[in-house]
Input
Amino acid sequence: MSETLEDKVRDAFAQGGVLSRAAEQFRERSGQTEMALAVARTIEDGGVLVVEAGTGVGKTFSYLVPALLSGERVLLSTATKTLQDQLFGRDLPRLVEALELPVRTALLKGRASYLCLHRLDLARHDASLPERGSLRTLAKIEQWSKATRTGDLAELPGLDERSPLIPLITSTRENCLGAQCPQFKPCHVNLARREALAADVVVINHHLFFADLAVRETGMAELLPTVSVVVFDEAHQLNETGVQFLGAQLGSGQALDFARDLLGAGLQHARGLVDWQQLVAAVERAARELRLAVGKQWPGTKLRWVGPSPEGLDAQVWQDALEALQQAFEMAAEGLDTVSEISPDFVRLYERAQQLAKRAARFALPCETDSVRWVDVGTQLRLVESPLDIAEAMRTRVLKIGSGAAREEGDEEEGRAAPEDNGRAWVFTSATLGDEPTLRWFTEPCGLGDAEVLRVQSPFDYAAQAGLYVPRAFPKPNDAAHSTRVAQLAARGAAELGGRTLVLTTTLRALRAIGDEMKQQFERLEADVRPEVLVQGELPKRVLMDRFREGADAGRAGCVLVASASFWEGFDAPGDALQLVVIDKLPFPPPNDPLVEARSQRLEAQGRSSFSDYSLPEAAVALKQGAGRLIRRETDSGVLAICDTRLVAMGYGRRLLAALPPMRRLESEADFEAAIGELRNSLSA
Output
């Protein structure tokens, strides 16, 4: 009898098996093996598996080992480019070598991650570079461009991800010239796609996957029908990522970018043939009028859009501004059509103008059913129409994609047969997918109600490794003094620990208030060495994380990091670098957010409770993610402080507490201080 995939997987994970010989840190974990065997069964039988694997289970090996041993073609999607790089650069090579498999792997990102050689040529002659330092940075990029094989900007050391140069040296779907580009043959994006189509294992990210569902532009249409195993890691982000791409967006920034490209190409290739200045002025004026139609709204405001215009705006003024923008794009398209034979730049600009005009026309019509529409207000405006979730798209366009349009287009490569849909294996996994046994928080909006669900508990001894403190005598979350008290509590713990503290906030306002207060607290410290306070937004995210992880060196205190948003997950600081996590408030979704409001209204219309079925599970998942920053290894120890009395005063607090790892409870301020003291003593031991 031939050995099954489950047999191979069981042997690999056994003590003394191939994994224990390949990795010094490896030890057999029952949860890891349980998950790996479930993945193996799904690969052999086909179908959909959803796995919540607690921190420390080792889920990456749990899906990689059976996927690699299966010999099938595999697509791996993860949440961020950073995790992509880790998977492709560290985990995959280690396992391929350990398992001694002749496997070709490839990394595929969105086009904004790759240097565009044509745009680099244009940037060399751009007289309006954003700042003086840009010329030096551009020179470094040019030098690197001659040596890089992949063109992946992540390989370029010292390039700030916020650099204003990046949009000038990368392409977008709108400005890419395609086969007409003079740099088409050596194009890094095309090279990455060719390598992906020839590989056995391809690593992508969720943004890339859903971008292709929306516009069929990223290469997934050719790739996915030939894949037998699809794994979505960090799957808890799928729904929010998907809705960004499955709706429609139009921004005043897009209009201004188009106007800049239009003027540049017009004056370079067809000066005098069309009045480019007039066309550009019309687009810029229309974009400006649309922004003025919103009035003096606070930056960061989201205006819910019901009926002909966003709430609080003059409907006629708004509709006139939208119509003027549409007409400006249509006029630009007419002008470009007269010179399209001169340069491929004009063909692409003509297509962009038409697309932008159609988008403006769409926003002049009523919003589609089961969608919500709003306006993001900032320096620029962004008009957004979004589905409420990705359930319908997942059911009809993802899980059945092999028998739909993609296969009809003949998207088969190198003679590979496209697997039948009922034989394809889909695996969705994350450390946090809900707060109840069926993981409904994840499966319902993702259209996975019929999936097999597995929950694997963390192997960590949380009661021994960590303590949970909820201060009782504390200002209420809406009290003006709340942020100050959070800062004082965090500063007290950080001063004892020499930094090693992460403060997670639910709002940017609290982020700034707590960061400022902690800096003032440490300035008053009578000590030679004070912890450094790092505040999100003051430095690039990568720099903040690296500086924090360096921890306390001899003669220098460690760091306090005050952060929000993306730092609630994906931030990993194992060991002594992080020993205190402070969360300011329970992370309920903001009720005035248009998407949150529309989802809540839909549930109420179905006779369900928007609080119990939406707001509470959302808060539970976010809280689990934030708490998960503290303990990353079996040897870690620390304290989690949640500065929100609702956790112990309100009935629903029991559900939120049950969602957290089973840490021992610190019932009083004295318990908290004693736990911090024990951590401090262990550092000096």
Summary: The mean pLDDT is 90.
